[in-house]
Amino acid sequence: MREAYHVELEQLAQHLAGMSAQVADAMEQATKALLDADLALAEKVISNDAKVDDARAECEEQAYALLALQAPVATDLRTVLAAIHAAESLERMGDLALHVAKTARRRHPDPVLPEQVRTYFAQMGDVAVKLARQTQEVIQTKDVEAARSLESDDDQVDDLHRHLFTVIMDKEWPHGVAAAVDVTLLGRFYERYADHAVSVAKRMVFVVTGKMPGYGPDEEL
Amino acid sequence: MREAYHVELEQLAQHLAGMSAQVADAMEQATKALLDADLALAEKVISNDAKVDDARAECEEQAYALLALQAPVATDLRTVLAAIHAAESLERMGDLALHVAKTARRRHPDPVLPEQVRTYFAQMGDVAVKLARQTQEVIQTKDVEAARSLESDDDQVDDLHRHLFTVIMDKEWPHGVAAAVDVTLLGRFYERYADHAVSVAKRMVFVVTGKMPGYGPDEEL
Q: CA–CA distance from A108 to each of A34, A42, A178, A183, B149 (Å)?
């Protein structure tokens, strides 16, 4: 039983690594679509989202089968449940990339972002995608050191997000209310994406090592 | 085993009903704090959020124990996993009520909402709280009919939310960018709360009946 459990858990982990790559690509492309007002790329992200949803359903089925057939207990049980939670967060990250792409499409051919805030989004996009790719790396290399920098990367997104708000709220914001509303929601999408990425990576460290970095296993990340 | 399973599942369901009541109260109070610029009430919601987090951790522990000791399979297994997902969504609903309360506190003693949009938030708050209370009712009465109106209530929040955006985006919005940003984020908090409430109620219908209303059990709600 133990061996079958470990083989199946490894398959599930590889599935989650694949999902991490999918949602990293989605956010990378959505950010490019946003920055370059690239409609074709936005459409690509939008049509690809169904694949992320399918991948999540497959991960859940795999996890259910593992629970039903192996009936794991203690740490093994928590590991499978962490994988189920991770799949849910990854799907949500895909949704957030989708929201970014839809915003780019809605305003096309106009750019969504005033010049003044472009670099914020370029940077938030970079860090968000990096976080998702780190998750993939944690799973594939079992190198939990790769997860160490996650907290500080997430802090970076939070800092960018906070600073972005001071720019929008500034009395001299000259781009009007509609642009401020778009920028506000977009900022929130990146912030949430980064939060979920950190949560997934930590859960995957748990899946790989049986220990949750910096948190008890049941604490909300 | 079957009897122990059903007794423990019923306890878990009652726990989730309690969480539904907590997050319904939180959103009701947060909305009142927002509408009346009531600082004491906002503080109450903020300090109570830790109780929701604790309740979620307890629900998860109960679910883990159920899985470890009873090793349910097939529908029974999916039922317990639906309960775990429901607990996660309920905690998220608590967080969203917390965000509303924090917004009210941040602007105190100024009101956050321009007069023009107050009724939108009063209505979104009513429907959001109603959705959470319906979840509680579904669990306690096992009356799945109570869940039927959930979709249309959620549509109502979406309609209010969409309409709210047309008000903010209107060229004659006279309240400035800062108010527009607050209203945008608040609108999003209510919309997400309602989405989660519908998702929880459907999962609880599944927990109570073994059938997911209108969806396959693995589809993202």
A: 9, 10, 14, 15, 37
List the structure tokens of B47: 């300090």
Question: Which residues in chain B have their CB less than 8 angstroms from residue A73's CB?
Answer: 68
Chain A residues inside the 8 Å CB shell of B184:
180-181, 184-185
Tell me the C-alpha distance between A56 and A205, whole Å: 19
Closest C-alpha among A130, A178, A158 to residue B166 = A178
Q: pLDDT (tens digit, 9 = 90+) per residue, B31-79? A: 999 999 999 999 999 999 999 999 999 999 999 999 999 999 998 999 9
User: CA-to-CA distance for B64 and A211, rounded, in angstroms?
Assistant: 17
The residue with tokens 């599942």 is B9
> Domain coordinates of chain B in residue numbers?
2-209
The topology under which CATH files domain A2-209 is Methane Monooxygenase Hydroxylase; Chain G, domain 1 (1.20.58)
Quick one: CA torsion of B41, B42, B48, B50, rounded to 10 degrees? -170
Q: Compute the nearest-CA separation of A169 from chain B (Å).
A: 5
Percentage of chain B with pLDDT > 90? 73
Please tell me the distance from the alpha carbon of residue B142 to that of residue B162, in angstroms, as a whole number. 33
Tell me the C-alpha to C-alpha distance, in Å, between residue A60 and each of B13, B43, B67, B140: 22, 39, 16, 28
Q: Which of A118, A145, A117 is nearest to A201 (CA)?
A: A145
Q: Which residues of B144-167 are buried (b: 16+ CB within 10 A; e: fewer)?
A: bebbeebeebbebbeebbeebbeb
- Contact check, Cβ <8 Å, A68/B60: no
Closest chain A residue to the Cα of B174, Cα to Cα = A177
How is residue B136 written in tokens? 């509680």
Q: Report the residue of chain A nearest B164, measured CA to CA.
A: A181
List all residues 6 or more positions away from A216 whose beta carbon is below 8 Å from its beta carbon.
none
Which of B68, B74, B91 is opposite residue A77, by nearest beta carbon? B68
Question: What is residue B146's DSSP assignment?
Answer: G
Interface size, chain A vs chain B, as Cβ–Cβ contacts under 8 Å: 72
Give this complex's ipTM: 0.91
Cβ–Cβ gap A165/B184 under 8 Å: no
Q: How far apart are the first and last CA of chain A?
A: 31
Token representation of residue B125: 């708050």
* Tokens read off for B147: 């869940």
Reading the block at residue B101, the tokens are 């309360």
